[in-house]
Design brief:
Number of helices: 12
CATH architecture of the largest domain: 3-Layer(aba) Sandwich
CATH superfamily of the largest domain: LCP protein
Strand content: 15-25%
Structural class: alpha/beta
Low-confidence stretches: 1-15, 337-346
Oligomer: single chain
CATH class of the largest domain: Alpha Beta
Distance between the termini: 36 Å
Helix content: 25-40%
CATH topology of the largest domain: Aminopeptidase
Shape: globular
């Protein structure tokens, strides 16, 4: 976060137009989205501000000699890259708190239909999330996150092995800690390994050793713990840069800007130094004690329990709801500001038509959390809608399991369709965030999710600031080392 969003060109304005153009020319970009999630940007709060969401992606590409030398796998040069690190950076609408949320790379999630130029990749429900990068590029990874979370993601930023090493060298040593000596070496059970070798205690890692730290998972026991180690590194980097006064040291910033613009690939709408600077200015008020790191709790995936994971539904749903409602993941803010600020207006540009003038299809999706579907839910809610004047509401025998309740409207219906859908949501007590455009919807479609298994009026669960599900908050002072990889500091 410090590198990609806070230090670019902040002190280099005096370097002149040619240097500014040089940094711009360093940047590479790509499309923001690879598909259509139907998720829209959150409504602004009372001050007109909206949250900022940026997807940070680590690619395992071996397309050039540098990445092969650092990551091995010379036979993988022609393999499409995988998104082995994925973190969503969420910055609150008031810019007072931020969170970084990781999903382990082998977590199976629904991947939507994605496009990459002339190539279209079909949707799938049984592949891990790291494959999104090879199914439509970083834009597909972003669309997958939007589909999974219901959170609009503004931008993505991507870096590869060589980029990580270059940035780690530029920053200098970042403090990390292990409770015992660690050597992430190849074993019979797990060939490969990052090669990380550190004695017990706190050490500053940089360059290739920093990459080894970020790639280590066997020695830390799991992909979930690898995310914990990555978050430790990011927190350490923030502290290091603050200690160096990196935000005000012009020569320091120049080096960071030069290296960062060469190391990063970004979504097209922020492929300029000026736009990255604008992002950095939105983050300047976030203090370290208001930066939360977390990993989505997971469990074994039944289809491949030894290799793949799946999110724990209740935990993941709670985290996504907190992001959608802009509820702080930490408890260090002003209690008076713990609740999400009211929207300036949820009123659409158009006025809703008479309730009985448009059709509504109601679908039972209550099996979305793995439980059996709540019997008769579609019929019950369709009857409730007809009683409220939506006389064309009818239940469907289709089942579309999902975790959250949504009201889809045809994308080509525009603001009128949105207004009609909002009137349906309001009548049932659903929040405006439940209303989404869908390119495939033929009319307004209410899918009753696993979060609404009973009752005629939707009751939104109340979540307090900092109320993360068990196992999600992964901040730690020192990493445990799995027994096989403990090192005595000698051999």
């Amino acid at each position: 976060m410090a590198i990609t969003l806070s230090v670019l060109i902040l002190g280099t304005a005096g370097a002149g137009f040619l240097y500014y153009k040089h940094l711009n020319d360093n940047l590479r970009g790509g499309s923001r989205a690879g598909g259509d999630s139907g998720v829209k940007k959150a409504a602004p709060n009372a001050l007109g501000d909206t949250p900022l969401n940026i997807l940070l992606i680590g690619s395992d590409s071996r397309k050039d000699a540098k990445n092969v030398a650092l990551g091995g796998g010379k036979n993988d040069r022609d393999r499409p890259p995988l998104a082995d690190v994925q973190m969503l950076l969420h910055v609150s609408a008031d810019r007072q708190n931020a969170s970084i949320i990781s999903i382990p790379r082998d977590t199976v999630v629904p991947i939507p239909k994605c496009r990459d130029g002339a190539t279209t990749y079909p949707a799938t429900n049984n592949r891990p999330i790291n494959e999104t990068l090879s199914r439509g590029g970083p834009g597909c990874t972003l669309t997958t996150w939007e589909t999974l979370t219901g959170v609009y993601i503004d931008h993505w930023m991507m870096i590869d092995f060589a980029g990580v090493v270059a940035m780690a060298d530029e920053v200098g040593g970042v403090p990390v800690c292990v409770k015992t000596g660690v050597y992430d070496k190849p074993t019979k059970a797990a060939p490969g390994g990052s090669g990380l070798k550190l004695p017990e205690g706190t050490h500053e890692v940089q360059g290739e050793q920093a990459l080894q730290w970020l790639r280590t998972r066997h020695a830390f026991g799991s992909d979930q713990n690898r995310a914990k180690a990555q978050h430790m590194y990011m927190n350490g980097m923030m502290k290091k840069l603050q200690g160096q006064n990196a935000w005000t040291d012009t020569s320091r910033l120049t080096g960071l800007a030069e290296t960062a613009t060469r190391a990063l690939v970004v979504s097209d709408e922020i492929k300029s130094v000026a736009k990255l600077l604008d992002l950095s200015m939105q983050l300047k008020n976030v203090k370290l004690d208001r930066l939360t790191t977390a990993t989505v709790p997971t469990t074994e995936y039944p289809g491949n329990p030894k290799a793949w994971l799946q999110p724990v539904p209740s935990a993941a749903d709670k985290m996504w709801a907190m992001l959608r409602d802009d509820i702080a993941l930490d408890k260090n803010g002003d209690p008076a500001g713990a609740k999400p600020k009211p929207s300036a207006s949820t009123k659409p540009a158009a006025t809703a038509e008479a309730p009985g003038s448009f059709g509504i299809t109601v679908i039972n999706g209550t099996a979305g959390d793995g439980q059996s579907a709540a019997e008769g839910r579609a019929g019950t809610i369709a009857k409730e809608l007809r009683g409220k004047g939506f006389t064309q509401a009818d239940s469907s025998r289709d089942a579309k399991p999902r975790k959250d309740t949504v009201v889809f409207y045809p994308k080509d219906a525009g603001e009128q369709g949105k207004a009609n859908a909002l009137s349906v949501a309001t009548s049932l007590g659903l929040p405006a965030t439940a209303v989404r455009a869908d390119a495939e919807a033929e009319q307004i479609t209410l899918v009753i999710g696993a979060d609404w298994r009973e009752g005629a009026t939707y009751k939104k669960p109340q979540v307090a600031a900092g109320d993360l599900p068990e196992g999600a908050d992964d901040k730690t002072e020192c990493m445990d080392v799995y027994s096989v990889y403990k090192w005595d500091g000698k051999s």
